[in-house]
Amino acid sequence: MKLKIPKEVKEQIKESIIQSTSHGFPRIVASQNIPLRIFWILFTIASTGFCAYLIADNIISFYKYEVSTKVRQKFSLKATFPSVTICNLNFFTTENSAQFINDVLSKKNNETDIKDDTEFIIQKSLTLDSNEKKKLGDSLNKLIIDTSIELTILDISDDLFSYFFHPWYGNCYTFNPYRYENGTIREAKTILKTGYMNSLYFSLNTSISEEIPFPVRVQGAIVFIHEYGSSPFSVDSLTVSPGFETNIALHRTLTTLTPKPYSDCDKDTDDKDKYPSDLFKSIHDLRFNYSQKACFDLCFHREMIKKCSCFFYLFTPFTEGKACLKQEEIDCVTDLYFDLMEKNYIDTLCKPLCPLECYSLKYSKSVTFSKLYSSSQDSTVINIYFEDFSYTEIEENQVMTEVGLVSNIGGIAGLFLGVSFLSFVEIAAVCIEVSYYYLKKKFRLKRQKSDNIQQEFTSKL
After folding, report:
1. From CA 117, how far away is CA 446, in angstroms rounded?
2. Superfamily of domain 71-263+358-398, CATH level 4
3. Reported confidence tier of residue 367, pLDDT bands at 50, 70, 90
4. 225-240 tens-digit pLDDT
């Protein structure tokens, strides 16, 4: 059955199309000349098709989540100095450690305990309480002889340095630490001068006790230069040789990524309650800011504890849980490590639980050496400084935002069809008018029927 549209509705729709703010359809309806009407139909169809293609292309581009990277060189005349963590290259340096080593080796069970003596001794030391562990390595005043910054001599004290235990190197000390020993956040050190003459200067004593019962393979110091607030584990270390002055010139690079889905990073990683992962929350419970690298390390550490009931210091910077002491435990941990590496455990096991931070600050280093004119082969000098006040800023931005997408669609529709947002309002207005016409007609018919029934009832009376 063919739908019959009333003449009034047709006239109303025709008038609305002719008065529309768009260009193609009013011309088609208003044209009296047939060839001219065909001309407008063809060009309207072509414009509509090309418009649809460009709009679809913009929508596809938007959902590719592409970014543009902006690299700028900036200047800041007041720079926050990084935290610097210093360790003796040797874990055991004192007479107490010599006695500890002798006691451990005398009680070692060569049948079941870890075969390598050095590994067994370090693992055994990790079972001690914190005070006993401190006695095995350098004290603050023994390791650091002198220090200064910007030509100002500093007092070597616990107010200036924070103790940090490293499972590979033992006692370490952090200059410009994020927190005091009691856990409160301290004010960051800022500098107003750059260059070698205004460097952070350290004079170190890297000697070890002559009573250490096994040959010392290397001697020197380890330096971690990391962002204020971050863990020393978040960066790679530098080895400093005794008998040399080591000059380390720094340049800062600040990187800001656009959060998912535009990159792999997650926003608000500074908020402990943002993500439900226990690993994420555990990293926040430490004395440092969150980092994905530390979260990955803790992920493997807990997998070791879960599968082998102990940890091995060479595979983790963390010391929670029981230290492995038996050779079969070391074999378990080693097999687990290679098995998980083969299965790409970081992507499959750890990455879903360890969000990536969007902001990072890295220090590139230019290192030079000069030999010290000194009779002591145990001392070394370190100078750490900014080359200048410039820094590199790398920032990602969305190629197309939601506002940009809407603007592009509006521009394309306006260019090819001459339509705007109000054009769609006009369509809605036509629909409302037509609906109102039919509702009014239906109401009139219903009322007319009611009147007829009432007249029939009256006539019967």
Report:
1. 102
2. Acid-sensing ion channels like domains (2.60.470.10)
3. very high
4. 999 999 998 888 999 9
